Amino acid sequence: MHELPFAKSIFHAVVTKAEANGATKVTRVVIEVGVLRDFVPEIVQKYWKYVTKGSMAEDSSIEMNEIPATVTCGDCQTVYEINVHDLVHTHCPQCGCQTGKMLTGRELRIVGIEIE
Ligand SMILES: [Zn+2]
């Protein structure tokens, strides 16, 4: 389960940031995650509860905004969204080219923290 180390690293980053801002409690965390990271929101929620237990972030909620995977076509530069569950059949809708440069989909960042 790669969600556990993920939840832990988010947790450490959140606490560090909250403490630097003189917070005593974290109430809400919003993150952006690219679909290629393949995280299951329900499992992240579960681990979030686990890693925050007894900390200043206990009982805080975590929201995940999924970023779709997009590619820039290597041929005609069209930007298109790819289906991560069917990469074999991925091709440019304009020219049919199968090579491209990954644009988004691997994000992993904290976009918001609510503190008290
Ligand atoms: Zn193309």
Report strand %.
25-35%
CATH topology: hypothetical protein PF0899 fold
CATH architecture: 2-Layer Sandwich
What is the name of the CATH class?
Answer: Alpha Beta
Structural category = alpha+beta
Oligomer designation: single chain
Which small compounds were modeled alongside the protein? zinc ion
What is the domain total for the residues? 1
User: Looking at the structure, what is the overall shape?
Assistant: elongated
State the separation between the terminal residues, measured CA to CA.
31 Å
Please give the number of β-strands. Answer: 6
The stretches of 5 or more residues where confidence is low (pLDDT under 50) are none
Proportion in helices: 25-40%
Strand order of the largest sheet: 2-1-6
Major pleated sheet: 3 strands, mixed
Count of DSSP-assigned helices:
2
Q: Please tell me how large the radius of gyration is.
A: 18 Å
The string of secondary-structure elements, in order, is: HEHEEEEE
Average pLDDT confidence is 94
Structure description:
This protein has 116 residues and is of the alpha+beta class. It has one domain (3-115): 2-Layer Sandwich (hypothetical protein PF0899 fold). The chain contains two helices and six strands. The strands form two sheets. The chain has a three-stranded mixed sheet, covered by helices on one side. Strands 4-3-5 form a three-stranded antiparallel sheet, with no helix packed on it. Strand 3 (70-73) and strand 4 (79-81) form a beta hairpin. Zinc ion binds at residues 73, 75-76, 78, 92, 94-95, 97. The site of zinc ion has 8 residues, from loops.
